[in-house]
Design brief:
Blueprint: E1 5-9, H1 14-25, E2 29-34, E3 58-62, H2 68-78, E4 82-85, H3 92-97, H4 99-119, E5 127-133, H5 156-175, E6 178-184, E7 187-188, H6 197-209, E8 216-218, E9 224-225, E10 228-229, H7 230-241, E11 248-251, E12 257-258, H8 259-270, E13 274-277, E14 284-287, E15 292-297, H9 315-321, H10 329-340
Parallel strand pairs: 1-2, 1-4, 2-3, 4-5, 5-6, 6-11, 7-10, 8-15
Antiparallel strand pairs: 9-12, 13-14, 14-15
The protein binds NADP nicotinamide-adenine-dinucleotide phosphate and ligand F7E.
Length: 341
Amino acid sequence: MKKKIALIFGVTGQDGAYLSKFLLKKKYKVYGVKRRSSIINTQRIDDIYIDINSKSNFILCYGDLTDSSSILSLIKKIKPSEIYNLAAQSHVKVSFEVPEYSADVNGLGALRILEAIKNLNFEKKIRFYQAGTSEMFGRTKERFQNEKTPFYPASPYGVSKSFAHWITINYREAYGIFACNGILFNHESPIRGETFVTKKIIQGLMKIKMNKQKKLYLGNLYAKRDWGHAKDYVEAMWKMLQQKNPDDYVIATGKTLTIKEFVNKAAKKIGFKLKWVGKGINEKAINIENNMPIIECHKRYLRPVEVDYLKGNTQKAKKKLNWSPKISIDDLIDEMIQHEL
Ligand code: NAP
Ligand code: F7E
């Protein structure tokens, strides 16, 4: 059987690393697109990169989602059977500070890939995955969000991803491209970016435990998130592209926790006894052992608009993809703590 070839945009990110490893195990040849940076940014995939002369099935190439010519020439040269668009300016708070750039990469980036597939007449040759997000539901009032829940994005990030979602559906309907949207809820791992809240909390608390840091500053403690493990979620991406027909799927755990509940779980596992005092921006957590405040809130970490509540309904993915999450939030936290050690 002919070897399947995958092209991953965003290979240096959390999901890019997990997906590359997953596909290599499935005997794919994997091409990963990285962008040029002034400092090496391949830490998450260094363990699978061999060297340029070896007959490795993992190959890195340069490209950028803001550069149509690089996208077109990569697709033309590689002729992948599957493309995974994981590249994004993926930080919600940062998207308020660089809105135009976020829209360009996240929104137009997806369009540029779809246009390249169309212009190369690869509509029937390439299957396309678009990394959509629960942030598209934004300020929804639905208690569970599924594929039919209307979008109400609440950040430039969420809005840009909504464009990518609809343009993916549009190219599927207009040109018959096998294009799928994953609507993935928050997923974390030991290699999660350090400014996302789960990693920030665990890394911060571990440093405090080891006397390397005094305090951790957070923003809104009362937003609720449905957190899963990236390892489970990349499997769902792949499954979407193996179906008979292209479709869109919500991927989540169906459970939700506040940031404060996440802090409490992590703190307990790390061996802290916390007492919460104060309200709003003055709320803080005191370490009962020495009566010192170790977590405080700071307005710097608040967003102009918050997504208060997310909880996914994955009935469709369960039924059609036979997918459900395997790793619990407790196991995820344990793994993240172990990694910091
Ligand atoms: P991540 O760790 O932030 O990785 C993003 C990747 O995109 C990195 O490889 C980054 O490269 C690359 N990238 C950024 N701008 C680019 C550009 N202009 N051209 C080419 N590549 C660019 O994100 P993640 O957590 O792995 O998430 C993967 C995808 O899923 C993203 O699209 C994200 O928006 C989406 N998503 C994530 C979650 C989640 O909870 N993790 C949930 C739903 C959807 P550098 O390494 O050079 O920065
Ligand atoms: O924030 C609150 C913050 O930045 C989660 C991305 O992968 O998932 C991610 O977006 C919550 C928010 O993730 C801090 O206000 C409190 O309510 O970890 P986060 P996110 O914004 O949910 C979605 C699905 C994506 O698609 C995105 O790409 O935590 N929060 N204090 C904080 N958040 C951060 N980052 N830092 C704090 O200090």
